[in-house]
Design goal:
alpha/beta; Rossmann fold; five-stranded parallel β-sheet; 11 strands
Amino acid sequence: MTDYFAYDELTWPEVAALRRDTPLVIPLGAGYDLGRLAEALGDPARVGLLPAVPYGWPGSGLAVPEAAFGQMMANLLDSLQDDGFSRVYALHPQGLALGLGPRALTQRHDSQRPAAPPLPADAARDKCVLVPIGHTEQHGHHLPLSTDTLIIDAIGRGAAALEPDLAVCLPAFPYGASTHRASFAGTLNAGGRAFEDFWLAVVDALVGRGFRLHYLMSGHGGNCSFLVNVVKYAGERHRRIFCATAWLHTNGHIAAPVLMETRLSGRGGMGHAGELETAMILALRPDLTHMARVIDETDFVATESYYMDWIEGGALVANPPWDDDTATGAYGAGSLATAEHGRLWLDAAIAEKAAHVREIHEQYHRREERRASGYGLWDAKARTDSSLP
């Protein structure tokens, strides 16, 4: 009998200890027959199931060109192989051409029985589409690889619940870009350019269906610079939308004061798997938080213009090797975290994202009014044509 385990619930030392011939599988969606999967893999003793990809392929409800989707999937599998795993696979519905060769396993899938409904529903076209993007990466000895995804999923769903008439939230996407991934086992990498291509294609698909307002919300710092590029490309390509992103969460004018007034650690205590993320996971999934394993590390090589706290601070932008500053994968003081603070900070982050939703609506509608008035270079045709270019 094959034992299936959730890869993203492990910590990085547990991933490092896995046998390198353990099959690891990334499913596209859910609803597969695990018995048939075990048979296809030769009935191994253990199989690691990675987080399911929620959309992107034909039949998922929100599809992008297969070439863009396939390159991102190939990069994810490559990162597992770079860590020494010899049996890595994508499990996907029949009929897809993703270019994965022997790393592709196929089954008839629920999405082929009938096709999945549109994601999001077309009735939500006037709402802002919240796109939570997390990651599957190491978070020290005490937090699961799913940390970034769990947090941004809770924030995205919470913001949509606060503003149900203004926002709709997609399922959290569990993979991002990690340029530092070689330092510690377990971290995946969608690849910066493939990541950008995929998310621009997602925006294209949504715009093609009439969605004008988009908020790409990242729970992982490595995604942020690439998402800025996506937003810039999208704004050039689609002149009648408002597509925005932000640097992570809990650091704007609403949430940052709450954080600064209540945190117990000093600067450097919240860099990565530190006080903030540990507190949030204590609030969300205490069963996955191993406080007895916490090792505080605050010896980041900090200078006036470059330091690490919740976000990278200072005027300099850099990407030194991750293991210059940490022996365990963590930056910060996770031992100071409490579930009470985690709930407080999640609520503040949700309030901040809900405020961003309102601001995105205001930006879009004020700009449309200005365009309709013939402002600047908007000519008569633009004033009367409400279609999306």
